[in-house]
Amino acid sequence: GQNIDQPTEMTATEGAIVQINCTYQTSGFNGLFWYQQHAGEAPTFLSYNVLDGLEEKGRFSSFLSRSKGYSYLLLKELQMKDSASYLCAVGDSNYQLIWGAGTKLIIKP
Amino acid sequence: NAGVTQTPKFRILKIGQSMTLQCTQDMNHNYMYWYRQDPGMGLKLIYYSVGAGITDKGEVPNGYNVSRSTTEDFPLRLELAAPSQTSVYFCASSNRDRGGETQYFGPGTRLLVL
Questions:
Q1: What is the tens place of the pLDDT at every residue in A37-92?
Q2: Between chain A and chain B, how many beta carbons pairs sit less than 8 Å apart?
Q3: Were both Cys, which of A52, B2, B19, B46 would link to B34 (CB 3.0–4.6 Å)?
C-alpha cells in the first residue's frame, strides 16, 4: 500500500531551528512536496524535490533521499507566524498526490 | 487573478439533502481536484479531472459526483448527504510541468451534515 508518515505534532522556540521529517512508501515517485496549512485555511505550496539533495528557499529548506524514502523540511529563525501544519505529499506513478496527515508545529515565545 | 474560488464557505445540511459545491479557477489549468480533509487526517482525493469533459474517481468517490463542462469550473455534487460527509472540502488546480505539479487550493467549504 501507499503510506506517508510524519510526526503528529512538534514544538519549537521562536528564533530556533526545527526539522520536520517525512518517510514515504508509494507506487512510483514523481516528486515530493511540502505544503503549509494555517488553521482554518487552505494548504499553500512551500517546496518541491524530485532529485536527491537539498533545496533552499530563504528560511525554509527541503531535503530528499529517494533511496531511503525520506525527506525533511528545515525551518530556520522560527517566527510565531510559522505556527501551522506542514503537509508532506508524494506524486505516485499516476502523478496523483498522496498526502501525509500533517505535522502541527507549535512555536513558543 | 482570483486563483481558485469556492462557494459556499460554510453549509449545514440535513441527512438526505443534496447540494453542489462550486469551484472555479482562472489560471487556465487543465487539472482540477476535489479533496476532503477530516480533523487530524491527510487530504483524501475524491475526484479529479485532466481537462474539460474528462473526470475520474479518486480514493473516496462514493456519495459524490462531478462534472467538468468547462476548463474553469469543476462542481462537486453530494446526493443524499450523510453525517460521514461532514468535512472540509478543498478544490485545487494545477498544470503538470516536467512531471511535477504544484497544486493551488481554494479556501475550502466547511460542510456539516446533521
A1: 999 999 999 999 999 999 998 999 999 999 999 999 999 999 999 999 999 999 88
A2: 51
A3: B46
DSSP-H helix ranges across A19-73: none
User: C-alpha cell of B74?
Assistant: 469543476
Cβ contact, residue pair A48, B100, below 8 Å: yes
Nearest CA in chain A to B89: A42
Nearest CA in chain A to B49: A96
Are B108 and A41 inside 8 Å of each other by CB? yes
Instruction: Determine the 3-state secondary structure of A36 from DSSP.
Output: strand
Please say whether the beta carbons of B69 and B92 come within 8 A.
no
Residue A82's contacts (CB-CB under 8 Å, 6 or more residues apart) are A75, A105, A107
Task: Name residues whose C-beta falls within 8 Å of residue A77's C-beta, 6 or more positions apart in sequence.
Answer: A15, A17, A59
Q: DSSP E strands: which ranges in chain A?
A: 3-5, 9-13, 18-25, 32-37, 44-49, 53-57, 60-65, 70-75, 84-91, 97-99, 103-108
Mark yes or no for CB contact A97/B45 under 8 Å: yes
Q: Which of B4, B43, B44 to mutate to test the interface with A (most CBs of A within 10 A)?
A: B43
